[in-house]
C-alpha cells in the first residue's frame, strides 16, 4: 500500500505494526506511528548505521542446506540474534531430497539444544510438520542465498507466491533472488517473512550475552571457569577450553564463537 509518513523518522520494516489514517480521496494513507516492537533483527547498513530488517517475529528460522555449502558463521549469528531478541529459534535443514550426508556440524547444533527440522521444499518432505511448527507464530526465514527460503514458503503456501531462484552454475552460491523482505500468511495460521539471503544482512551483535546465548552448550562448563568474567579464549583454568580439549564441546563450535567474540571486541574498541 502506498503511504506517506508523517515524519521522516517513521521508516517501517517488514513485520511492523503501524497506525495510519486512510484518507477519503485517492491520496496515499498517512503513517502516523510505528508501534513498539517486540523483537527486531538488526544489521549494519552500508553507512555503518544499524538498521532493522524485520520486526515483531516470535520465531527465527535459519534455513540451510548442503548446497550451497552452509555458512555456519551466518547461522551462528542468526541464532545469537534470536536469543538476544528473546525469540525462539529453529534450524531448517532443507534439500534432504539431494540425499547428501548430513554434516557433523548439524548434529552439534542439535546436541547444543537447538531445534533442527530436516525437510525438502522440492519433494514436500515434512512440510506439513513445518507448517504445524509455524502455526500461530510470526516467523522470519533467514539464511544464506540459495538455501531455499522462498521455495519453502511457496511449498508451505501451495503456490508460487515468493520468487525462488537458482543456484549459480557451480551450485556453490545462490543468486540473491529475493530482493526485499515480504510477509506471507500461511493457510493454517501463522505468518512468515521471507528475507533476502545476502551476506550483508548479517545481524549485528552488540551484547556479549547474545553471543554466549548462541552457544548454550558452553554454559554448564562456564560456571566452573576460574574467572566469573571468563571469555573462554585463553584464560587460565577455563573450563570451556578444557571441555573443548576433552571433546565435550565441539572444537568447530568453539572456533565459531571465537570469530564472533573477536568481532564484538573489535567493534567496542574506540576508533583512533
Ligand atoms: N534439490 C532441492 N533444491 C531446492 C530445494 N529447495 C530449494 N531448492 C533450490 O534452491 C535454489 C534456491 O532456492 P530459493 O528458494 O530461491 O532460495 P532462497 O533462500 O530464497 O535464496 P535468496 O532469495 O537468494 O536468499 C532453487 O534453484 C531451488 O529450486 C529442495 O528442497 N531441494
Ligand atoms: Mg528467496
Ligand atoms: Zn572460561
Please write out the topology.
Layout: E1 3-5, E2 18-21, E3 29-34, E4 40-44, E5 50-55, E6 59-65, H1 72-84, E7 88-94, H2 104-112, E8 116-118, H3 127-134, E9 138-142, H4 149-157, E10 182-185, E11 191-194, H5 208-213, H6 219-222, H7 239-245, H8 251-268
Parallel strand pairs: 1-3, 6-7, 6-9, 7-8, 9-11
Antiparallel strand pairs: 2-3, 4-5, 10-11
Helix pairs in contact: 1-8
Bound molecules: guanosine-5'-triphosphate, magnesium ion and zinc ion.
Short description:
With 272 residues, the protein is of the alpha/beta class.
Q: Which shape, going by the Cα principal axes?
A: globular
Helix content: 25-40%
Number of alpha- plus pi-helical segments: 8
Please write the CATH class name of the largest domain. Answer: Alpha Beta
Strand runs, count:
11
Distance between the termini: 45 Å
The H-level CATH homologous superfamily of the largest domain, spelled out, is P-loop containing nucleotide triphosphate hydrolases
CATH fold annotation of the largest domain: Rossmann fold
List SSEs in N-to-C order: EEEEEEHEHEHEHEEHHHH
Query: Strand sequence of the main sheet, in spatial order?
Result: 8-7-6-9-11-10
Q: What small-molecule ligands were found?
A: guanosine-5'-triphosphate, magnesium ion, zinc ion
Query: Average pLDDT value?
Result: 90
Tell me the fraction of residues in β-strands, as a range: 15-25%
Uncertain segments: none
Secondary-structure-based class equals alpha/beta
Would you identify the CATH architecture of the largest domain?
A: 3-Layer(aba) Sandwich
Amino acid at each position: 500500500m502506498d503511504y506517506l509518513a508523517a515524519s521522516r523518522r517513521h521508516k517501517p520494516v517488514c513485520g511492523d505494526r503501524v497506525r495510519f489514517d486512510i484518507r477519503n480521496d485517492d491520496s496515499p494513507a498517512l503513517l502516523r506511528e510505528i508501534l513498539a516492537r517486540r523483537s527486531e533483527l538488526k544489521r549494519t547498513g552500508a553507512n555503518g548505521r544499524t538498521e532493522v530488517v524485520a520486526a515483531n517475529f516470535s520465531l527465527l528460522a535459519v534455513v540451510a542446506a548442503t548446497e550451497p555449502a552452509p555458512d555456519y558463521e551466518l547461522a551462528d549469528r542468526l541464532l545469537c540474534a534470536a536469543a538476544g531478541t528473546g525469540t525462539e529459534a529453529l534450524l531448517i535443514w532443507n534439500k534432504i531430497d539431494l540425499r547428501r550426508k548430513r554434516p557433523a556440524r548439524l548434529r552439534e547444533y542439535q546436541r547444543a539444544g537447538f531445534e533442527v527440522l530436516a525437510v525438502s521444499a522440492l519433494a514436500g518432505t515434512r512440510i506439513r510438520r513445518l507448517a504445524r511448527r509455524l502455526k500461530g507464530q510470526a516467523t522470519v526465514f533467514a539464511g544464506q542465498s540459495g538455501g531455499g527460503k522462498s521455495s519453502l514458503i511457496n511449498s508451505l503456501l501451495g503456490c508460487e507466491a515468493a520468487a525462488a531462484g537458482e543456484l549459480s552454475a557451480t551450485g556453490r552460491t545462490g543468486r540473491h533472488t529475493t530482493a526485499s523482505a515480504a510477509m506471507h500468511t500461511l493457510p493454517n495460521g501463522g505468518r512468515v517473512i521471507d528475507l533476502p539471503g545476502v551476506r550483508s544482512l548479517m545481524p549485528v551483535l552488540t551484547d556479549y550475552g547474545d553471543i554466549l546465548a548462541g552457544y548454550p552448550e558452553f554454559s554448564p562448563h562456564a560456571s566452573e571457569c576460574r574467572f566469573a568474567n571468563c571469555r573462554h579464549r585463553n584464560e587460565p583454568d577455563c573450563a570451556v577450553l578444557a571441555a573443548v580439549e576433552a571433546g565435550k564441546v565441539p572444537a568447530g563450535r568453539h572456533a565459531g564463537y571465537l570469530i564472533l567474540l573477536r568481532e564484538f571486541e573489535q567493534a567496542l574498541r574506540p576508533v583512533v
